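[SOLVED] Need 3D model of a two-part complex

Original post:
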Amino acid sequence: MPSGNKKVELKAQERREFLSYAWGVGLALVLTFVPFAIVKWSAMTPLAVLAFIGVFALAQIVVHFRCFLHISLRQKREDLLLLIFSALILSIMLAGTLWIMASLALRMGMT
Amino acid sequence: MSGDIAKHPGLNLGPGHGKDDAAAEGLMFGFWVFMMSDAILFGMVFATYLTSLSATAGGPVASQLYDLTSTFVETLLLLASSFTFGMASLAMKYRHSQRRLVAWLLVTLLLGLAFISVELHDFASMAAKGGVPTRSGFLSAFFDLVPLHGLHVAAGCLWMIALLGQLARYGVDTKAKLGIMRLALFWHFLDIIWIGIFSVVYLPGCMHAVG
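Solution:
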């Protein structure tokens, strides 16, 4: 059974972890609301809007990883390496696909 | 995490859970490997969607089919369900009553089901406007990507129902704990995929309606 001191420590830890979820939801709400508002109401150029959407999406993904999945830099090395490696593979395949298919469309005159 | 190094992704049970915490390390890593491969699958489907954007073949285009308000509602439902799942994880970790754990899981399940029904309603209204998968390459790619995420959410809901049954029959034992922890990873991961979907599919699609 945990001693009194241990109980206080657990309570504090629970509060910290609750706050992590609460912050996560709060930040995610803001990061969701802004791009929706921009798309609905702003009169910026399409390229600027796209840039905003991209930045806010990346920020929200980081928030979700940090606050909901509890991924931090103080993680076991293998977990973090796997995450970074997957991100690398994903970006190579995504960027490669888009590049090759766009180039193909251009050469075939299908713009 | 009180300065400790996390042993695996997701909320760690901590040393207070003894053998359950020790058993989690390998299982959670294995599940994390699966999820990263699933992320790559989703990435390629995203790439397919992006390369098919202009392949509308004279059919309806994104701005005629997408509905920004309903996308916003779906986003809020999933975000809320991520939070309530977090509350369920905390209830389990800090050994609150099983009723509290089950209540949070039930709320999460209801939010997930609400998300699926709003999404199905979306698909139905798209189909009513002629937006069916067979109409164009663009629509095939759309119905490859978005319902794939919806299917994942449906699978998560089924898994949740199975876990609720397991909890009712056996209580919060090692197997139930590890199941809930893996479902938590899966659920939060699906919410991250959804960020990609509304940012890549719906927001740019609705943008052209305005500009």
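Edit: Chain A has three helices and no strands.
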